[in-house]
Design goal:
Its main location: membrane. This protein is α/β, with parallel strands linked by helices and 258 residues long. The chain is 33% helix and 25% strand. The strands form two sheets. It has a six-stranded mixed sheet with strand order 7-8-9-3-10-11, sandwiched between helices. The protein is globular. The structure holds adenosine-5'-diphosphate and magnesium ion.
Length: 258
């Protein structure tokens, strides 16, 4: 059996006196596509931040998190991931996080920086071969024709596709996307989900996506992990997310979240 890509074991997180994550445990195996769902404030983003080491668990009974076979945090201690390991994880944000004044192509090339020798990365010089590869990554998200435009001239949906091309350029094995479609109109949201599904299916990359639309989670992801008030409420096939379960999951949340 292969080593799980992600192991979260009895993870606990408090911010001051408020408990944000409580005894959360799950494993994700290589090549899965998983939706992380739950009402707002249930701890989804905090959990994602744990997976990349942007947040550390509590010192007492904090639990542990392993990524790609290495423990990255345990009992309040953060272990710095090696550069090689960091390159294997790509993060996609709700607000795209592109560099506005740079071209689309340069934004994609930036995905390569972590893999370049440090001295060359500082100079920010890219080879013709790297440019060619960046154009191929843009072609995979359907934006090769926009390579030389400034990033901020693109629509939200297009900017999110550039962000996906950037993680393709990085050649990340694991893609973590926190609410990647929350700021998009329905059509752009569908395009972004289709691209994420395709790169999961074609390349075998592991993809974890936080979503607040359950119907989208059902359509694109085989498995869902649901958090409710910081606790694991459901972990299983999206097809087993029954209406009764969803009703309980969202019982204290506004109807618009469903
Ligand atoms: P979700 O992404 O599911 O909406 P979050 O992980 O963003 O939930 O937040 C979960 C809870 O943790 C919320 O109550 C939020 O206010 C709290 N929280 C998140 N980050 C911090 C922080 N840095 N300091 C204090 N409280 C925080
Ligand atoms: Mg969030």
């Amino acid at each position: 059996m292969s080593i799980p890509t992600i192991i979260v074991e009895r993870l606990n997180k408090n911010f001051g006196h408020s408990r944000v994550l409580e005894d959360v445990s799950f494993e994700i195996t290589p090549g899965e596509i998983v939706a992380l769902i739950g009402p707002s404030g249930s701890g989804k983003s905090t959990l994602m931040r744990h997976l990349v080491g942007l947040t550390c668990c509590n010192r007492d009974r904090g639990g542990r998190v392993s990524l790609l076979g290495r423990e990255i945090q345990a009992s309040g201690r953060l272990r710095r991931a090696s550069r090689g390991q960091r390159c294997r994880v790509g993060y996609i944000f709700q607000q795209f996080n592109l560099v506005n004044r740079l071209s689309v192509l340069t934004n994609v090339l930036i995905g390569q920086l972590g893999r370049m020798p440090r001295a060359r990365a500082l100079l920010g010089r890219f080879s013709d071969e790297e440019r060619q590869r960046a154009l191929q990554c843009l072609a995979r998200v359907g934006l090769e024709g926009m390579a030389y435009q400034r990033a901020n001239t693109l629509s939200g949906g297009q900017q999110q596709r550039v962000a996906i091309a950037r993680v393709l350029m990085q050649d990340a094995d694991v893609i973590l996307a926190d609410e990647p479609i929350a700021s998009l109109d329905p059509r752009s949201a569908r395009e972004v989900m289709e691209i994420l599904e395709r790169i999961h299916a074609e390349d075998g990359r592991t993809v974890v996506i936080t979503l607040h639309q359950v119907d989208i989670a059902r359509r694109y992801c085989h498995r869902a992990i649901a958090l409710k008030d910081g606790r694991l409420y459901f972990d299983g096939k999206t097809s087993e997310l029954t209406d009764a379960r969803l009703k309980t999951l969202y019982e204290n949340a506004g109807l618009d979240e469903l």
